[in-house]
Design goal:
The chain has helices at 2-31, 38-65, 109-143, 190-205, 208-221, 226-249, 255-268, 287-293, 303-327, 333-342, 355-366, 368-394, 402-409, 437-442, 457-475, 478-487, 489-499, 504-509, 516-528, and strands spanning 146-150, 153-157, 165-168, 178-182, 279-281. The chain is mainly alpha-helical. Strands 1-2-4-3-5 form a 5-stranded mixed β-sheet.
């Protein structure tokens, strides 16, 4: 459900930008002396509607399928959100304030419920009223005198004062699905009658009547959005122009006779009611339509694909930003640094916030996979915390090193063959701390077909504490010790030589070390501030 809400809001944010860009591009090309044909403008309008609907969906899919870190290859499906945590699991530094960053305050559930019910009521009333009126229109058309039939299109004589229009209904039984309505006054003018019928039949040929129903539903879904109504009106106008252009450019009608027909229609029905919902028609002729009849029809073969491609490039970052807004605004480095300082227990493992830590933090908080992983990790940490903390305290190590178990295994005591994901790159291990066999044996753990001490949480925690203690004693820097825990001492020693620096942030940025340290630091921030996952 949250994904659908995010998609809906993403489309709502992209839609006005798409409309303004498309309309502006068409107008700009015209003023620069490169006008598009009416049919091309109609294809641009329809293409923009498709882009506004499709791009947020593609971005949402990309966000869902992208890993929240270096996940193992077997975990590439969309992870479902875990259940909401019952309470925070971090109690170290009990009086430390851990406020959420600006913009991250969760909306109460009852507010979403009220908004959802309001949307359902509004959209249901809008679409329901339009569809009921559309059904009544069908019954009304069936009662009108039929003039003739053109293929599967029924041409009927409308009531006095009724404008000319076309309508399409889903086909069932033996009823006609396509209709053309002509005003009774046209029976006095054979030429005007012929031109009007040709115009309305053209609406059926270019599927305007089918898309009119789709626009009706789309406008109903976004009944509150001015851009949805504006786009619908623009498409309806372009459909009329496209019909006029096709009839004149194909030679089926003469421009002078067609212009006369439009003018006579305006004079005969000056106060004609609007075209019924879900129908299309020539009820509102304009000066622009008449002028267009006498202008040369531009032919630019690749104009529409090129323009839509350019619009897609402009709209893609807008769709990405829209998804970011609907999913929750990304945290800045300054906000992460303030959060790290306020939630830092005295004497515990420090969090050094750099660009990589912020990147990993936003991936863990802002993607479905990241959130699901971290929620599962915090829930498991509540179960194993006592055993893990006791092993760390026995070696005098900071409790913040629990974040290593969070990143390695989501605090899951699993064998090597387990299919659950890990955020740690490199060779897969086993247990909560993900020891590989060689390292496990070096610290006195038995790893054989008969027994695997890595699945003994207390013994493995003592071994992990010994390893982390030795690494910190060797490098006198917790971030270098964490890097060595994942990549090994040889890799870290080589990175120090090649990088010429002990600054882990610089070594990661230069590619000498992977992102493991940044992921652990980001995980520790979430462990200390579980409200980030709300």
């Amino acid at each position: 459900m949250s994904g659908l809400v995010s998609l809906y809001l993403g489309v709502a944010l992209v839609l006005p930008v798409a409309l303004m860009l498309a309309w502006g591009a068409v107008v700009l090309l015209s003023r620069m002396g490169f006008p598009l044909a009416a049919r091309q403008s109609l294809r641009v309008g329809r293409g923009v509607l498709v882009l506004a609907l499709l791009l947020p969906l593609l971005v949402m899919g990309a966000r869902a399928l992208s890993p929240a870190g270096p996940l193992f290859s077997f975990e590439r499906s969309v992870a479902r959100r875990a259940e909401r945590l019952p309470a925070a699991v971090w109690t170290a530094g009990a009086g430390v304030s851990t406020p959420a960053p600006r913009g991250a305050v969760p909306v109460p559930s009852h507010v979403w419920t009220v908004l959802g019910l309001g949307w359902l009521l509004g959209a249901g009333l809008f679409i329901g009223r339009a569809l009921v009126g559309h059904g009544r229109l069908l019954r009304r058309l069936e009662s009108l005198p039929r003039v003739r039939g053109v293929g599967r299109v029924a041409v009927v004589l409308g009531e006095a004062g009724m404008p000319a229009f076309s309508a399409w209904f889903p086909h069932w039984e033996a009823r006609p699905s396509a209709w053309v309505v002509i005003p009774p006054v046209l029976l006095e003018d054979a030429e005007a009658l012929r031109l009007t019928v040709l115009h309305e039949l053209q609406h059926h040929r270019q599927r305007d009547t089918h898309l009119a129903l789709a626009r009706l539903v789309f406008t109903g879904v976004f009944f509150w959005h001015p851009a949805a109504h504006a786009l619908s009106r623009w498409l309806a106008s372009l459909q009329e122009l496209a019909c006029d252009e096709v009839l004149v450019s194909s030679g089926r009608v003469q421009a002078q006779a067609y212009a006369r027909c439009l003018l006579q229609a305006a004079l005969r029905l000056p106060g004609a009611p609007p075209v019924p919902a879900g129908a299309t028609g020539m009820s509102h002729p304009t000066q622009r339509r008449i002028h267009m009849l006498f202008e040369p029809c531009p032919r630019r073969v690749h104009a529409v694909p090129a323009l839509l491609g350019a619009l897609a490039l402009f709209l893609l970052p807008v769709a990405v930003l829209a998804q970011g807004v609907t999913k929750g605004r990304a945290m800045t480095q300054a906000e992460a640094q303030a959060l790290a300082q306020k939630s830092q227990p005295q004497g515990d493992l420090p969090v050094v916030v750099d660009a990589k830590v912020v990147e990993q933090l936003n991936r863990l908080v802002g993607t479905d996979k990241g959130r699901a992983f971290m929620k599962r990790a915090l829930a498991n940490l509540a179960t194993h915390r006592a055993a893990l903390s006791a092993g760390l305290r026995a070696k005098g190590l900071p409790e913040g090193l629990l974040a290593v178990a969070v990143v390695e295994s989501a605090v899951t005591n699993m064998p090597e063959t387990d299919g659950q994901p890990s955020l740690a790159p490199g060779m897969r291990g086993a247990g909560v701390w993900m020891f590989i066999p060689e390292t496990a044996r070096r610290y006195g753990l038995e790893v054989s077909a008969a027994k695997d001490d890595r699945l003994d949480v207390e013994r493995e925690t003592r071994a992990a504490a010994s390893l982390l203690s030795e690494l910190h004693a060797r490098y006198d820097d917790w971030r270098l010790a964490l890097a060595a825990y994942n990549q090994g001492e040889k890799k870290v020693d080589l990175a120090l030589v090649e990088g010429g620096s002990r600054d882990v942030s610089a070594l990661i940025e230069a590619g000498h070390l992977n992102d493991y340290v940044a992921t652990v630091q980001a995980g520790l921030l979430i462990v200390r501030n579980p409200n980030l996952l709300d």
